[in-house]
Amino acid sequence: MKFWSALLAFATLSLAAYPPSTLHAAPGDRPNVLYIMADDHGYQALSCYGSQIIQTPNLDRIAKEGMRFDRAFVTNSICGPSRAVMLTGKYSHINGFVHNGNRFDGSQPHLGKYMQAAGYQTAVVGKWHLKSDPTGFDYYHVLRGQGPYYNPKMLTSNGPVKHEGYTTDIITDVTLEWLTEQRDADKPFMLVYQHKAPHRNWMPGPKHLNDFDDVTIPEPATLFDDYSGRTSPARYQKMTIANHLSPHDLKLVPQRGLTKAQTKVWNEAYGEKNRAFKEANLTGDDLVRWKYQRYVKDYLRCVQSVDDNVGRVLDYLDQTGLAQNTIVIYTSDQGWYLGEHGWYDKRWMYEESFRTPLMVRWPGKIAPGSTTDQMVMNLDYAPTILSACDQQVPDDMQGQSFLPVLTGEQQGVFRDALYYHYYEFPGAHSVAKHYGVRTDRYKLIHFYEVGSWELFDLEQDPHELNSVYEDESYAEVKADLEQRLKELRKQYQVTD
């Protein structure tokens, strides 16, 4: 008797954590949700964003049949924290996951749990990268940590599993298996489908090992940036193509974790190219240019596999009729540098890493081929998904639903300013801690442990090469931004 009383008390406490309007069991006409997230996929590597270096026809379908966001941003440009923000709708300092060394507290309320309570069947497949086991998901099949590009070990609801093959393909195989064999047709679903690619060290799949071999990828205008127009943090990072890519990154040494058959295919693709590089004996700018070509081509080859595999899932939705009542979201955990400022990686509040791709398709609700320049954040994803599924957004979520933007009902500006905060220093790539505010035209960044400030006029200086913080002609702009920054820090309960 005591056992059943305790169980009833626990169930009552668990349900109390959710708004009453989320406690629905019947699926009704509520949409399914397919949330697709790549890792480190910069908007520059999507043809629907105007890329001149790659074609991504399957990903472009989502934009063509839905809405493309031209100003979507993240709160903290680093993998684990971004994922925690997406799940909780709360900034890193509130959800407790501020850098990649943290462990996500899965006991806290988050999107998966809210959707479960609303009667949704929930699943997550692919990259998780939050250290703790997934909670709030009826099914999970996720990579251990970062996971390798080939032959991954994965953690599942029923124990660990070892796979053989290319990870991007395997993640999709598992996703399609769940949709075909384990999905409950009597319930709406939320499926979180997350790729490792194109994360470092950019190992292409067998189908794309020789893509771009006969192409010279255009160099970004800022490949040889000297950082003279900014304060010291931009100079003292460790993420340059010139100096910080390893022989492993550049595929100049044997790659780990391949089978004999995979190694043979790999060596056939890279052996001759590597011999030609060694014979050229490049130095100086010529060496930097070679490293750029090798790095970017491998990155794009990984993106090609993501595009192929997203296409497989979109085809399945079309063929089964699920597409008509499924919201499809494609994004990345943050942006990425494809040689801009001479860099790879992310972390900065500068635009390439701060901004992320975001496309959303929802037949009958979102106008096909629509675009928006409204500023949204990954902070808003959970509230938007909840409201699209006719659920109340919890009061303690710090994001806001951009559903009215999606449906064309938004009146006026959705958000007039964004707050960003990066914490991971000391850490990989030596990017100084900083926070800041971005508005429609301006960006103010404070490197608070260094004690320096930067201000950029994005209209006059879109590449963010020259800070105008000390320019007297921007004194009024600076004062306004500093005040707005204080307001945002208070709004989001930032104390550090």
Automatic annotation (TrEMBL):
One of its GO terms (molecular function) is arylsulfatase activity. Residues 339-491 form the N-sulphoglucosamine sulphohydrolase C-terminal domain. It is an enzyme of class 3 (hydrolase). InterPro entries: Alkaline_phosphatase_core_sf, SGSH_C, Sulfatase_CS. Keywords: Hydrolase, Signal. It comes from the Bacteria. Residues 1-25 form the signal peptide. Pfam families: SGSH_C. Its EC number is 3.1.6.1. Belongs to the sulfatase family. PANTHER family: N-ACETYLGLUCOSAMINE-6-SULFATASE FAMILY MEMBER (PTHR43108), N-SULPHOGLUCOSAMINE SULPHOHYDROLASE (PTHR43108:SF6). This is Arylsulfatase.
